[in-house]
Amino acid sequence: MHAYFDNAATTPLDPEVLEAMLPYLSQHYGNPSSLHGPGRQVRAAIETARKTVAHLLNAAPAEISFTSGGTEADNYAAFGSIRTLGLKHAITSPLEHHAVLHPLQVLAKTGEIALSYLRHDAKGRLDLAHLEQLLASNPRSFVSLMHANNEIGNLNDLAAIGALCAGHEAIFHTDTVQTMGHYRHDVQALQNQFLVGSAHKFHGPKGVGFLYCRSGMQFGAFIHGGSQERNVRAGTENVYGIVGLAKALEIACRDMAAHQQHVQALKNRFIEKLTAEIDDVRFNGCSAAASESLYTVLSVSLPPSDISEMLLFNLDISKVAASGGSACTSGAQTGSHVLEALGCDAARPTVRFSMSKMNTLTEVDFAVAQLAKLYKPVAA
Ligand code: PLP
C-alpha cells in the first residue's frame, strides 16, 4: 500500500478535470489573442472559465483574473493595492504563508509601508481586539489575513475581520488558497477586496490560479508586455490550466458536502488512532477542533524521539507521504515559522497529514500503523 497525505501541498488531478483539459492540449491550439476562428474558440473557453469561477464565488467575471497560482495572486494584491492606493501601513500575522509575508516584508524593507503583526494566542487564534486597535490607530491599512492556515489548519473568521476592516477603511485581502474548493466563498456576503485560489489545491492542475478583485480595485498591469487579462497580466494565457481550474472548482463546489463529510471522517479517524497508538501525541494549533480548523489538515506534534530528524524520510520509505518539520531552533534557518510563532517545542517533531476526497480510512489506518511502528520516543 501507498498513502498520500500531503494534499495541502498539492492534490492529485481529478480525471474529470484532465478530460476537460485534454482538448486544449491537442485540437484547440489557437492563441486566444488571435482574431481567427481557432483563436476565438480558445478565447471563448477562457471567458467561459472566467464566468464559471465568477458564478461560483457570486462575483462578476470582470472581477476574476487568472494568474500562475496563489503566490502571484497574493503578490498582486499586496503590491497593487499598496503602491496604487499609496497605503502606508499593513497588518498581517506571523502565521501567514510566505506568499503573503515576503511581499509585505519587501515593501517594509523599501520603506513603502510600516508593517504590524497581529497578536495571537498559543493555539494560533488571532487577537481581533488587537486588530481593532491597530486599525483605529492606522486607518486605510492593507490587511492580509488568511482564511485557513496551511500548516496547522486554523480557520480565521473572515466575516468578523471584514467588518472591522470596513469600519476603518482598510483594504482587506485574504489568502483563501487552502479553503477554495473546500468551503463556499460568497463575495457578496464578505467585505474583503481580494481573495485568491490555486487550482492544484482542489484537484486541478499546477501553475494556475486566480485573483478576485472587487470591482473598482483593479490596478492596471502587474506583468507588462501585452493586453491579456484586461491589461493586468501580460503573456499568452495558460489555456488548458484555466480550463482545468474552472472544471476543478465546479466539481469541488458540486460535491462539497459529501467531500467534507468524507474528509472530516478521515481526520477524526487519524485523531482517534494516533491518540490510541502513540503516547503523548498532541495537535498543534486548533488542528483537532472540528469547528475551528480546516477539515483537510491535521498537524500532529509527537514526543521527542531519536528518529525525529529522519521521521518524514522514514515515513516516505514506509510508503506514507506527509510533510512536517518542527519549530526553528534558535539561530537555525530551517524549520517552520508558524510552529515557531506558536512557541512549539523544537524538540517535538510535527507531521502534517493533509487529506483529500481521494483518501480512504484504510490508508489512514495504514499511515498510523507505519508511524507507530517507526516511533520510538526517547525514554523519560
Ligand atoms: N498561500 C497558501 C496558504 C498556500 O498554502 C500556498 C501553497 O502552499 C500558497 C499560498 C501558494 O500557492 P501556489 O503554490 O499556487 O503559488
Secondary structure topology:
Elements lengths: L2 E2 L10 H7 L15 H21 L6 E4 L2 H16 L3 E4 L5 H12 L4 E4 L10 H10 L4 E3 L13 H10 L3 E4 L19 E5 L10 E5 L14 H4 L7 H16 L1 H22 L4 E2 L13 E5 L9 H7 L2 E2 L1 E3 L11 H5 L8 E5 L6 H14 L6
Parallel strand pairs: 1-11, 3-4, 3-5, 5-6, 6-7
Antiparallel strand pairs: 2-8, 7-8, 9-10, 10-13, 12-13
The structure holds pyridoxal-5'-phosphate.
Pyridoxal-5'-phosphate (PLP) binds next to helix 3.
Give a quick precis of the structure.
The protein has 380 residues and is an alpha/beta fold. The protein contains 12 helices and 13 strands. A 7-stranded mixed sheet has the order 2-8-7-6-5-3-4, sandwiched between helices. Strands 9-10-13-12 form a 4-stranded antiparallel sheet, covered by helices on one side. A two-stranded parallel sheet has the order 1-11.
Descriptive terms for the model:
alpha/beta, single chain, Aspartate Aminotransferase, domain 2, 380 residues, seven-stranded mixed beta sheet, 38% helix, binds pyridoxal-5'-phosphate, 2 domains, Aspartate Aminotransferase, domain 1, 13 strands, four-stranded antiparallel beta sheet, 12 helices
Textual characterization of the structure:
With 380 residues, the protein is of the alpha/beta class. It has two domains: 3-12 and 256-378, Alpha-Beta Complex (Aspartate Aminotransferase, domain 1); 15-254, Aspartate Aminotransferase, domain 2 (3-Layer(aba) Sandwich). It has helices at residues 15-21, 37-57, 70-85, 98-109, 128-137, 158-167, 228-231, 239-254, 256-277, 311-317, 337-341, 361-374, and strands at residues 3-4, 64-67, 89-92, 114-117, 142-144, 171-174, 194-198, 209-213, 282-283, 297-301, 320-321, 323-325, 350-354. The strands form three sheets. The protein has a seven-stranded mixed β-sheet with strand order 2-8-7-6-5-3-4, with helices on both faces. The protein has a four-stranded antiparallel β-sheet with strand order 9-10-13-12, covered by helices on one side. Strand 3 (89-92), helix 4 and strand 4 (114-117) form a beta-alpha-beta unit. The longest helix is centred in the C-terminal third of the chain and has 22 residues, at 256-277. The model has no long low-confidence stretch (mean pLDDT 95). The chain binds pyridoxal-5'-phosphate (PLP).
